[in-house]
Amino acid sequence: MMRRWQLAHGRHLDLGDRAVVMGILNVTPDSFSDGGLFDAPGQALAQASRMVAEGAAIVDVGGESTRPNAVPITAEEEQARILPIIAELARRGEALISVDTFRAGTARLAVAAGAHIVNDVWGLQREPGIAKVAGETGAGLVVMHTGRGRAKLPDVIEDQFVFLRRSLEIAREAGVADDRIVLDPGFGFAKETPEENLDLMARFEELHALGFPLMAGTSRKRFVGAATG
After folding, report:
1. Average pLDDT of the chain?
2. How far is Cα 148 from Cα 141, in angstroms, rounded to an integer?
3. H helix or E strand, kind and range, residue 4
4. What's the whole-model pTM score?
5. Residue 185 and residue 202: Cα distance in Å, rounded?
């Protein structure tokens, strides 16, 4: 079934039978797989163009590492890293742009700079004001499940439903329309063992009961290496 994902700045993306690829651009010195490779603007922009050439429809720009035990940074530092990159990517118009942040202030500035999508790895539950930014700007919204900072339910899918339904309540209360939302089960984010991630992968289809398109971020995750050796 074709779903039209409505995004900021009058853009949209049709989601159907074929997967859409999001390229991850970590403008950081310490991200888990590519920290320091693309933290200079020229390197970051070249990598974005390379990902688009290889088939990415979206470039997701993040300025703060989300790996376990990463050192927190200020909003000002995050914004200094990502806003010039987002503005230049918007000027080039090569791909849709997503901003990876949990901060409402950063999200608002990123959309103003040209981002089409807000991608929150805390599922709107660390800084709920970010949902209001999406509602007011018309940005597409990726709502990710995480187990960080809370006790999880034993069943991997039941925990997804409980967490994501609360996130959806926050989004709707902030005026975010359903056709702007994509859900991400958060592979590797406080999934304690490789087996938990693999169980989530095996039961992925059950998440369709929530009624939203799904995003899966599994590239270079540790559990893949545990499964393949």
Report:
1. 91
2. 20
3. strand 3-6
4. 0.91
5. 12
